[in-house]
Amino acid sequence: MKKTKSPDKATVSRSSETNEATAKVIVKVDSRGGRPHDPLAKVEGMERFCAQWHYRLAIVKMAKKNGLPGFDAHGRVDPVKLIPALNDMISTGTNLPDGIASPQDWLATEKAKCQAVIRQKLEKSVMPTADAKRQNGEAWAFIFSQLEKLALEGPPDFAGRTAVELGIRLNGFKERMRSEAKLKFEEAA
Length: 189
Description:
The longest helix is centred in the last third of the chain and has 30 residues, at 129-158. The termini are far apart. Among the domains are: 1-38, no CATH class; 130-188. Strand 1 and strand 2 form a beta hairpin. Strands 1-2-3-4 form a four-stranded antiparallel beta sheet, with no helix packed on it. The protein is an alpha+beta fold. It has helices spanning 46-53, 57-65, 79-92, 103-125, 129-158, 163-188; strands at 2-5, 10-18, 21-29, 36-37, 43-44, 76-77.
């Protein structure tokens, strides 16, 4: 390794092998720590690799899942091995449907489809407010009409009856009204 100094910045030249070819790499000194910063050194984590090399995280995760070279057991990423493999993977294409550029887009599309299905099911199971108000109005109109019928027909029918007979007749009227209302509104629902 040969160090050279220039008045404005210190640089280090070194040779590194990439894909059977030797390339000269100029390495700048890091201004924060004074250490040489090698752009081809292993990067800690996929997120930092994506930020440094401008790849989408979903594609790098897919590359790791597919077993591409460049990932080690400690979570570091080797750009020298990974970038050529990533470029090959991107150039050959993916098995995603047409019109979907990345797995994130596909996931968002699938979530939207599921939410649409759930919304349709809820719309079918939930009654619109206007229908509920109409049915509520019909129910109260039915109940009041039955009570008016009782008020008109009841006193002549109740005359001369005992308390027990009146109780039996009123209970029968109540049960008849309940069963008629139940039948009427089960048909509507």
